Amino acid sequence: MSESTEVLKPQKTHFYFHLPFATIVKVLLVLLFLACLKVLAPLMMTLFLATLLAVSLCPVVGWLNRKGIPRGISIAFLSAFLIAVIVTVAALLIPQLVQECTNFIANLPKFKTDLLNELSDSNPLRPFIKNFLNHQNLVPKTMDFAPLFSFGNMALSGLTELVLIFVFTVYLMIDGSRVIKWFSSFFDETNQQKINQTADEVSLIIYSYVAGQAITSIASFVYVWAALSYLQVPSALLLATLAGIFDVLPVLGFFFAVIPAMLFALSVSGSTALIVLALYIVYHGIENYFIVPAVYGKRLRVSSFVVLVTLIAAGLLAGVEGAIAALPIVASYPIIERIWLRRFVGQKTVAQHQLADAE
Asked: CA 245 to CA 265: how far, in whole Å?
């Protein structure tokens, strides 16, 4: 008896990837948010810098208000005073800075020759400095106006940003507390108290940072200008201005300021360059161990290693402005941890961090 055998064909297995429509919308919204954030990043940084300045000026407005001067008049008076100070300083420094920059460009060939003449052929730094000068093409062979236009665009962009920072600062001084209340109204009463507490304590950090940084930058400018002028180093005012600007960058700012100062001092003599290096190191030590603790107090006790890593990361992500804004953010973390993250990191961790910061 023959039996019919049925041949079983292998069935195909189909894999379907089902992506819900809601998930697609969420992904698109996240991508749209990131795209908008990339476009608005410069504006957000400008607004953040204006917030730092506004928070630092609010105590002055409050002091004037307690003296019987209405808040609006206090803000107008303070704004006019700041404009007067900026215009006065610019009127005193900018002409001399322009003159020094003009002299520096005109004397570039002589500067390069004098610098190399101060280094003997046996000096191990001579090949490095010579290659650096040749690579940077400090002595232009032909007249090229492109750098001038580029510098003009940079100056115009910087001036526009400064104006925006000032305008935002005035608005934040007027409506800052109202903005915080409007934002906190989205949360329940407990979180509203946390937001207000965070704003009050972080404001003290920001005030200490901005006020302290202004003092240390001015001290660095005056010290470097006096020292380099006494040693007859070329472009002393320009180098002092760089020292005051780079003073806002802990650790890294020292190297950014001392290297050009030593190069200019080498054009005078090798011993002058060593004296300049020694003077910068001495001031750096005095600032770190005496001026900064006296000015900042205990509000900005941040590890130097954490500061260095944060500055490098912030600089890579957002340039010099990001590096400037990084320190008050890092210094504010203990407050955020204590108020918002206590239940996540644990009371023991918060207590240990507070003990470590107090050491």
From this structure: 20
What's the rounded mean pLDDT across residues 252-271? 88
Token pair 């080498």: residue: 266
Cβ-contact 223, 282 below 8 angstroms: no
First-to-last alpha carbon distance for the chain, in angstroms, is 98
**Is residue 143 scored above 50 in pLDDT?**
no
Number of residues assigned to the chain: 359
Whether 264 and 233 have beta carbons less than 8 Å apart is answered as yes
User: What pLDDT is stored for residue 342 in this prediction?
Assistant: 85
Cα angle 206, 316, 237; round to 5: 70
What digits encode the pLDDT tens for the residues 144-176?
545 545 555 666 777 788 889 899 999 999 988
Whether the predicted model's global pTM rises above the 0.70 cut: yes
Q: Which stretch, 42-51, 109-118, 326-335, 347-356, has highest mean pLDDT?
A: 42-51
Q: How far is Cα 53 from Cα 47, in angstroms, rounded to an integer? A: 10
Greater model confidence, 108 or 39: 39
**Positive or negative torsion for Cα 289, 295, 301, 304:** negative
For CA atoms 274, 276, 279, 285, give the dihedral sign: negative
C-alpha pair distances (Å), 154 with each of 44, 149, 150, 160: 19, 9, 6, 10
Report which secondary-structure segment, H or E, holds 234. Answer: none
Sketch the domain layout of the chain as residue ranges: 39-131+152-358
User: For residue 328, which of 308, 355, 291, 300 has the smallest C-alpha distance?
Assistant: 300
Cα dihedral 21, 27, 30, 31 in deg (nearest 10): -120
d(CA 191, CA 350): 19
Residue type, 359: E
Contacts of 50 (CB under 8 A, 6+ apart): 164, 165, 166, 167, 168, 169, 172
The pLDDT, as a whole number, for residue 14 is 54
Virtual torsion, Cα 222, 223, 229, 230, nearest 10 deg: 140
DSSP class of residue 289 equals I
